[in-house]
Amino acid sequence: MKYHDSIKQADKTMILAVKQLKQWHLAVNPINYAVSYEYCKKNNPILVASIKRILLSGKAIDGFFMEQSYKEHCLEQSKFRHEIVADLGQLFAQVQHSCQLSTSSSQELIEQLDDNIPALMSHDKSAVKTAITQLHRASLSFKKQQQQLAEQLQQSQQQTKALEDELEEVRQEIYLDPVTGLYNRKAMSQHIDTWLTEDADRAVAAIVVSVDHFTHFSEKFGDLIGDVILSKIAKKVASYVDDSGLPVRSANDEFIVLLPDVDGGIATEIAEKIKQGVEKLRFVSVQSGIRLPKMSVSLGVGEMQPKEGLNQFISRSRKAIMTENRE
Predict the structure, then answer these.
(1) I need a labelling partner for 295 at 20 to 30 A (CA). Which of 24, 34, 135, 156 fits?
(2) Domain ranges of the chain
(3) What is the CATH number of domain 185-326?
């Protein structure tokens, strides 16, 4: 852990962390323990608030939530940030140095031209010959420097490409759910912030898609088959979202589709298409050839209200599922 606790303090927190996991009915594995330890230390207010919000909502804290919390709140990102900043700093320094060399060599060539043009116009053959020789030397020097700059530029381009690839890998790890390939809650928060920064009055609709009886399905057929089924449902959900929308895996058995510039009526139509599309899916076990049960989803649709927070918006949209089920 990253704390400088005494042995007595660490033992006390360890006992509390294990006890907390038992209360949440979670296994004492490394990821769950790390999150529970962080929660018991109370040094991470964002994590504590996130867990309390789940508990107050009446939902169970599951493995999916713990894994997401571990990635978001427990993993150290400082080393990666330091390496990226150092690499970018080195790259910028090289580009700046290349620009300075280019400016310097160009200035030297211009000065040579200015100095020797009068001699070239002279009737003195010796002066003309000397001027030509000096210009030739300046030209060769300029070409050599330009060749060096071209090589440095190519090297900088290669480093830039490597950094872009590394950043893309990290971006996917930070913002994408590894099982379904959909965006995660962190990406959802970032997109909402961006949309509302662009236009504070922008209309945003949400479709909450809850997979019915998924916990029971996973217990019966295993987590591996459960993940495969979930990824297929996720793909079907995402197929109804265009480039402007954002499909998110928000919980173990739940997806959220955010739709900017869409009203509740259109969102309801899209939700119905999602429901019909999922219910048409058929699943067969590759290993046994056994046909698996059909899956269904419950849906809730909401529209974001002015000055409403994301958590309140999503919570209100979830309540629409209960309203629909009662009806």
Answers:
(1) 24
(2) 7-74, 78-175, 185-326
(3) 3.30.70.270
